[in-house]
Amino acid sequence: NGWSCSFNGDDEAVINGKVYEIYRGYESGSRGNYGIKCREKEVER
User: Looking at the record's lineage, which domain of life comes first (predicted)?
Assistant: First the structure.
């Protein structure tokens, strides 16, 4: 989709200019699928 994505380390990603936290873990009820999720990080301005 043309978005840029870069990783600033093991727990942070920048997607389309926004900083996201990465957190890994098993979802309950997902049949054991291991996922990496990103959520928008609160940026102090």
Answer: Bacteria
pTM above 0.70, yes or no: no
Number of domains in the chain: 1
> pLDDT by residue (tens digit) across 10-34?
778 888 888 887 776 666 665 655 5
10 lies in some domain: yes
Burial 7-39 (b: 16+ CB within 10 A, else e): eeeeeebeeeeeebebeeeeeeeeeeeeeeeee
Q: Positive or negative, the Cα torsion across 2, 20, 27, 29?
A: negative
Residue 45 lies in a domain: no
